[in-house]
Amino acid sequence: MEPSASRRAQGDNLSYFIEDPGTGTLYRRGQLLGKGSFGQCYKFTDTSTGKVYAVKIVPQSRISRLESRGKVEREIELHSHLNHRHVVGFHRHFADRGNIYMILEYCSRKSLAHILKARKTLTEPEVRYYLRQIVAGLCYLHQQGIIHRDLKLSNFFLTKNMQVKIGDLGLATRDEQASQRRGVVCGTPNYLAPEVIAKKGHSFQSDIWALGCIMYTALTGCSPFEITHKQEMYQCIREGRYPAPNHLSPGARKLIGRLLAPRPSERPSLEEVLEHEFFTQGFTPDKLPSRACHSVPVFAL
Ligand code: ADP
Description:
It is built from eleven helices and ten strands. The chain is an alpha+beta fold. Helix 4 runs antiparallel to helix 7 (204-220). Strands 1-2-3-4-6-5 form a six-stranded antiparallel beta sheet, with helices on one face. It has a two-stranded antiparallel ribbon with strand order 7-10. It binds adenosine-5'-diphosphate. Adenosine-5'-diphosphate is lined by residues 33-37, 41, 54, 56, 88, 104-107, 110, 154, 157, 167-168, 170.
């Protein structure tokens, strides 16, 4: 890329055409999709194939500190080796003088956080639909030895046909690295498990705890552990004490209770989650219509 284009590619003066110097692929930059902790995410079109991507752009100036550069490099190292239908696809990455670019699978229906904001609560069949896909993606990550560490509704992206994709591996780690770094809380995960608060490190079971928080939030519209006073919230987390969601089915309440077990060893495995009565005794739709993004879907049983 000529120097002037590279200069324009910094900050808000991003160029409209960006070239991957490795392959010569020319991308046209489209709308801003959102802002992240290190940079921005834009819609990009590959000008030769017409294929659309979501591209995370991290300005080199934002990661001049070795520590932040390491975080971005780790995210790329982990994410670029993954390939699963329920994990956001990582197409390629490249850098120019101004930025680092991560070319990702485009998820046009944003995230489950956006859906919950519009809907306030989701129905149990929908939660089964989403959770089945999330559990499949998470099972793959765990089999690869990766702990996500920041599972939350805004990191579950949705494609045009309402397929869930787990994204944002910015806080993810390999299991062996997590155990070497016990007690080190890096970044701020949304749903802190009791063992993370106790600085015993984030394990595969801490991701299972987050699933409990996610399921509770999706069904009730509120997080099980709301922040009023931090110390009080930590105490509730340690004891697994949260407002009883009495209006939910017994199966949903029981599964939430198991996922939010204070002791990690008492939480179910991902296989056990799918075998729970919440899944086996209730209807799960095969597909969701896109109107489920803003209104309660009606299922023809
Ligand atoms: P952070 O890593 O700080 O959470 P990201 O850079 O992952 O932030 O994402 C910032 C925003 O960009 C998200 O909130 C979302 O709106 C959008 N975004 C990220 N990835 C995708 C994607 N694959 N498809 C569509 N939009 C995305």
